[in-house]
Write a structure and sequence with these properties.
Blueprint lengths: L16 E7 L9 H10 L4 E7 L3 H10 L5 E5 L10 H6 L4 E3 H10 L11 E5 L2 E6 L3 H23 L2
Parallel strand pairs: 1-2, 1-3, 3-6
Antiparallel strand pairs: 4-5, 5-6
Helix pairs in contact: 1-5, 4-5
Amino acid sequence: MEKEISLHNMGEKKRLKVHILTVSSSRTLENDESGKLIENFMSLEHETSRSLCPDEQIKILRETLCNIEKDVIIITGGTGPSIRDVTISAVSKIAEKEIKGFGELFRQSSNEEIAYFSNASLFLVGRTQIYCLPGSPGAVKKGVEIIKKFIYHIYHELHKE
């Protein structure tokens, strides 16, 4: 049974600008199932854009910084234990804060034990939320469910005076 989470202020509901970045050396925008899933979920309520880059810190940073004016960036891929998984290392170089509770909630609510080896996380850079999710479609579905619960609350917290 999933418990309902109550927040003191869910924030205003508005159409946010969301960029989806897939980190992969083997996928293309056409065969990127996880990126398409995120876009399908998020485009119902938000303005979305997508890009793809290889598993290289400099390229991840460049794509992230090119989209830093967006309200939200969702990165899929590169969060595991492999030596090629460098998403978290890259994003943490520019992050002002890491909200560790997002990754904890992701791992706790996942039905797959393998999720415990993911470094799924939420970083903040200025007023931009940067979510880092694993690359599998199942992980993306779970991650987006969680993101949708909190996206407006965090937006509100980052924009209040």
